[in-house]
Amino acid sequence: MEQILYDAEDGIATITLNRPEAANAQTMALLDDLDAAWTRAARDEAVKVVVLRANGRHFSAGHDLKDRWPGPGEITLEWIYDVETRRYLEYSLKWRNIPKPTIAAVQGKCIAAGLMLCWPCDLIVAAENAEFSDPVVHMGIGGVEYHGHTWELGPRKAKEILFTGRPLTAHEAEQAGMVNRVVPPAELGPATDELARRIARMPSFGLRQAKRAVNQTLDVQGFYAALQSVFDIHQTGHGNALSVDGRPILTGLDEMKSRLRRS
C-alpha cells in the first residue's frame, strides 16, 4: 500500500497520508515520499493550491519510533543531527516556502511530528475532534525539531503545552490563532475543498506574492533564525539521552505513552 497518495484536479493538488493502520506515524520513507509529492505539486504549473490530508481516524501520531534508529551502540549524535536536519527541519521549511497556498485538514490526534506536517501549511482546517500536542518533554527534549510553538501559539500557551504535555483542543487552537476554522468531523473534507476552490479562483501571481510577503515578514521578525537556533537546542536532548543509555528518543517513551493514555 502506498504511504502517500497524490491527486490533482481543477488547479488543486491533494496529498494524502495513507498509513491509517499506524495512525499515519511517519517513517523516513513516508517523509521522503511526502517530500516528493510536495515537490511534484510545486512544479506543476496547473496546480494553484495544495491540500494535505490524512486517511483514517488520526492526522498523524508523529514519528514511527520503531523505524527511525539503528541498533544500540550504532547511534551517534552526528547521525541523529544529519538525519533530523534533512528530513525534519529542512523538509518542513521547504514545504512552508512552496510558492503556492497550502491547506492542512486535521482530524483526531496530531502529535509531536504531526505538527511538523500541518504547521508549515498556510492554513489549517480542523475537525472538532482534532487534538494537537507535543509531549516530548517527557523524553527529556524541549519540543519537536521544527520549533514553531511560539509563533503558532504565543509564548505562554506554547510553554503550557510543552510543560504539561497536554493536548490542545481544536477550539483552543483556533482561539490561539493556530487553526483557521473548526468544523464537525463529517464536514472536514467538504469545508477544506470549498476553501481550496475559493483560493484557486484567485490569480496565481497574486497568491504567490501574498504568501511571500507574509512569510518574509515573519522571517524579518526572526522566525527562520529562531528555528535554526532552537534546532541545535533540540539536539542537546539527544546528546543527554545518549550519555544516559545510548537510546535517544526511546528514553522515556513508555512513560510518555502512559501519560498520553491517561490524558
TrEMBL record:
Coiled coil: none
One Pfam family this sequence matches: ECH_1
Cleavable signal peptide: none
GO molecular function: catalytic activity
CDD domains cross-referenced by the UniProt entry: crotonase-like
Xref: SUPFAM superfamilies: ClpP/crotonase
Annotated family: Belongs to the enoyl-CoA hydratase/isomerase family.
NCBIfam families linked to this entry: PRK08290.1 (NF006140)
UniProt-recorded name of the protein: Enoyl-CoA hydratase
Native source species: Streptomyces fuscichromogenes
